[in-house]
Amino acid sequence: MDELSKQPLDEFLASVADATPAPGGGSSAAVAAALAAALVEMAAEFPSSRGGDAPGSGAPSSRAADQARTLRARALRLAQEEMSSYAPVLEARDEHERELALAAASEPPAQIAETAAEVAELGVEVAVSASAAVRGDALTGVTLAEAAASAAFRLVGINVSSGPVLERARQAELRAVRARASATDRPPPTAHAPMPN
């Protein structure tokens, strides 16, 4: 498959829809995080509602745009990595190999959750000072990032039932949920939905 960042959107969507294991939920969550970062980046590049920080001026909004750009690139890299991370699970010859492969396959979605949480938190910062014309875009980025973090956390929880990777993904999801709640004035849920067995 072509490098994901160079694929047309319709080809990527068709490859997700194919009856093959990858790209699947992990790559889709990472692409959602990248899209969220792109929205935050765009909102950060717009002149601020607080006094006209021009795009590229080196002002805080420009630093936020640079950070969003970095997060977007990281999310796309993780989407590409995720496309092959589950193959060793499918190729495992016994239960021990499968458990090791599942543990290794949990790292990319955990990193996707962490990246998405960073995007959500950055999106909140950008939305506070964003021009009214793009505030909704920044908030859409926050909401998409929360969804990406939640999806990635659930993928980790399907692979492993405990351990530091699962806890990292759980904490990332919580950060993203809190960010969205602070941005939309809707309280976060009080508890996680139970993890599937």
Write a compact overview of the structure shown.
The chain has 197 residues and is an all-alpha fold.
Number of domains: 1
Q: Given the C-alpha coordinates, what overall shape results?
A: globular
CATH superfamily: Formiminotetrahydrofolate cyclodeaminase monomer, up-and-down helical bundle
Low-confidence stretches: 51-58
- Which class best fits the helix and strand makeup? mainly alpha
Quaternary: single chain
Cα gyration radius (Å)? 18 Å
Helix percentage range: over 70%
Counted by DSSP, the helix tally is 8
Q: Which architecture would the CATH scheme give at its second level? A: Up-down Bundle
> How big a fraction of the residues is strand?
under 5%
Notes on the structure:
With 197 residues, the chain is an all-alpha fold. It has a single domain (21-184), classed as Four Helix Bundle (Hemerythrin (Met), subunit A) (Up-down Bundle), CATH 1.20.120. It has eight helices and no strands. The chain has helices spanning 9-17, 25-45, 60-85, 87-91, 95-105, 107-129, 132-159, 164-184. The longest helix is centred in the C-terminal third of the chain and has 28 residues, at 132-159. Residues 51-58 have low confidence and may be disordered.
Protein topology:
Blueprint: H1 9-17, H2 25-45, H3 60-85, H4 87-91, H5 95-105, H6 107-129, H7 132-159, H8 164-184
Features:
single chain; 197 residues; mainly alpha; Four Helix Bundle (Hemerythrin (Met), subunit A); 8 helices; 0% strand; globular
